[in-house]
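Renewal narrative, Specific Aim 1. Our central claim is that a sequence can be written position by position from structural information alone. The example that follows is taken directly from our test logs and has not been curated for this report. It begins with the structure tokens describing the chain, in the order in which they were read.
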């Protein structure tokens, strides 16, 4: 997973005051009620099969408590304010001018469940008072989606740099921002999802040899009762969430390359304290398979086979990915959210060109939703981790047609 395409965004004071999106002139084209720019066609209220998402809940409080044990996929969906159906989301799609009518998730003609953004180092200064995630969340709420943040901040001085965990100045700022995020989400009237540090936990598993107590880490002042190591770091995030934003759903990231099996990865996440979380987030590949096959772009030069076999007869294939996820889910007792899934269109011809690289994950997932449910899944959030990939604007309508068909008959969660 890489973040070459993450936009370090800022909004004008006018947009902060309006708690809405910004056009290039700093004006807010979307009103607080969802306005005419949203593309949902429902006055900003999303429904699934005639059921209002989160019906019967308040700030997730109407759902059974989550964290501290096993979490069912249906319970997590309800805590997120959604109906108990397999969730579909999208992210990393904010337009440069903040015109919400051109934001990918809001022009599909279907009410997606989740909308995710990246929070990289410095997000706290993108808006006065660290309000950036709250601003985006308020627009998401007005349009019927549940907001989600992928926090990618510990890597500010290198993706595999564990020295920062013992750097007092660095970690003091890190934890201040973690608390700030939870305080801003705590001010929301509804739920949000926080996805913690993609890839970091995989590096941590390798660095620690599977023993999180072997790597020291400085913690937030509020976490003085937790061990000053990797497990304390994960649990400190959970504690800040429960204290300052109890309606937040929170989870660690699981990477396939962290160890030899999903069981091993799940065991390490459990040692980190995953039982105190709600969900585990997994990615398959953060850009189109065809981008790697073509090898034209600097960020798509990686050895290996990337196009998955839909018949599941040869490797790599989807059954292998689902088996890994099922192992992680079973060991941790948490449902799986697949994230940052690329948009490429299937093709018999390897490769492609920028904006039109091939991939088949959208095609396979929407034709095999039950397999993802059976693997412990709560949902899938689509998006890309680099520029020049296939998008819903360049895929010939594949993704839009798929989500419209899915939300006409969503798949229930156990």
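The sequence written for that structure reads:
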């Amino acid at each position: 997973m890489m973040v070459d395409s993450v936009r370090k965004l800022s909004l004008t004071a006018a947009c902060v005051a309006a708690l809405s999106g910004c056009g290039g002139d700093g004006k807010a084209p979307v009103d607080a009620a969802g306005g005419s720019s949203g593309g949902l066609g429902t006055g900003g209220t999303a429904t699934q099969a005639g059921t209002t998402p989160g019906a019967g809940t308040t700030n997730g409080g109407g759902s059974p408590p989550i964290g501290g044990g096993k979490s069912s996929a249906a319970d997590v969906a309800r805590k997120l304010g959604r109906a108990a159906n397999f969730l579909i989301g999208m992210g990393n799609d904010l337009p440069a001018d903040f015109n919400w009518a051109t934001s990918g998730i809001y022009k599909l003609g279907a009410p997606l469940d989740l909308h995710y953004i990246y929070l990289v180092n410095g997000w706290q200064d993108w808006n006065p008072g660290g309000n950036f995630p709250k601003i985006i969340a308020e627009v998401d709420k007005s349009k019927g989606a549940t907001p989600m943040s992928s926090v990618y901040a510990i890597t500010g001085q290198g993706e595999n740099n564990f020295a920062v965990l013992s750097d007092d100045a660095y970690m003091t700022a890190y934890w201040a921002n973690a608390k700030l995020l939870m305080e801003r989400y705590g001010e929301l009237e509804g739920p949000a999802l926080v996805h913690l540090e993609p890839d970091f936990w995989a590096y941590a598993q390798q660095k620690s040899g599977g023993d999180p107590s072997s790597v020291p880490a400085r913690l937030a002042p509020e976490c003085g009762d937790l061990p000053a190591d990797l497990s304390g770091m994960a649990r400190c995030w959970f504690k800040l969430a429960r204290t300052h934003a109890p309606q937040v759903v929170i989870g660690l990231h699981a990477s396939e390359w962290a160890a030899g099996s999903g069981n091993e990865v799940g065991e390490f996440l459990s040692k980190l304290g995953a039982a105190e979380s709600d969900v585990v987030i997994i990615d398959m590949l953060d850009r189109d398979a065809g981008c790697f096959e073509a090898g034209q772009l600097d960020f798509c030069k990686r050895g290996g086979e990337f196009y998955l076999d839909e018949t599941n007869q040869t490797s790599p294939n989807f059954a292998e990915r689902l088996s890994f996820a099922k192992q992680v889910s079973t060991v941790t007792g948490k449902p799986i959210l697949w994230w940052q899934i690329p948009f490429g269109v299937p093709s018999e011809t390897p490769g492609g060109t920028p904006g039109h690289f091939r991939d088949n994950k959208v095609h396979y997932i929407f034709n095999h939703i039950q397999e993802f449910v059976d693997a412990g899944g709560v949902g899938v959030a689509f998006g890309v981790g680099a520029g020049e990939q296939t998008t819903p604007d360049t895929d010939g309508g594949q993704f839009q047609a798929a989500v419209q068909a899915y939300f006409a008959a969503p798949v229930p969660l156990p």
